[in-house]
Amino acid sequence: MRLTERERDAILACARRHFGAGSRVLLFRSRVDDERRGGDIDLHVVAETPAQATLTSELRFRADLADLIGEERVDVLVREPGYAPRPIDLIALRTGRPL
């Protein structure tokens, strides 16, 4: 996994703050592969409650995270509990690693 401990801790802290203490976060795509270089940070987040899986929560999460880790490119998929998975969700669930 190509995240520093500081990045990992910041992502988890921001996710808990904006999506609930019981939210689940997966890192997927290129940053999971230690052999690759570069790439953005792709995150799949399942919020603790449907009320926390909002665009407002996502935008606040992004702003908060940028303050902590800088202007890294971050892609975030936010889902509510019990969501119907789309193809990208299946990729994240199959290949992602929990933070």
Describe the structure.
With 99 residues, this protein is of the alpha+beta class. 39% of the residues lie in helices and 19% in strands. The chain has 3 helices and 4 strands; from the N terminus they run αββαβαβ. It has helices at residues 5-19, 55-69, 87-95, and strands spanning 24-28, 41-46, 74-79, 97-98. Strands 3-2-1-4 form a 4-stranded mixed sheet, with helices on both faces. α2 (55-69) links the parallel β2 and β3 (74-79). α1 runs antiparallel to α2 (55-69). The longest helix has 15 residues, at 5-19. It is globular, with a radius of gyration of 13 Å. The mean pLDDT is 92.
Concise summary:
With 99 residues, this protein is of the alpha+beta class. Helices cover 39% and strands 19% of the residues.
Major sheet description: 4 strands, mixed
Structural class: alpha+beta
Gyration radius from CA atoms, angstroms = 13 Å
Mean pLDDT: 92
Oligomeric status of the shown chains? single chain
Beta-strand content estimate: 15-25%
As a percent range, the share of helical residues equals: 25-40%
Number of strands: 4
Q: List low-confidence stretches.
A: none
Strand order in the largest sheet: 3-2-1-4
Order of helices and strands: HEEHEHE
Characteristic terms for this protein:
alpha+beta; globular; single chain; 99 residues; 4-stranded mixed sheet
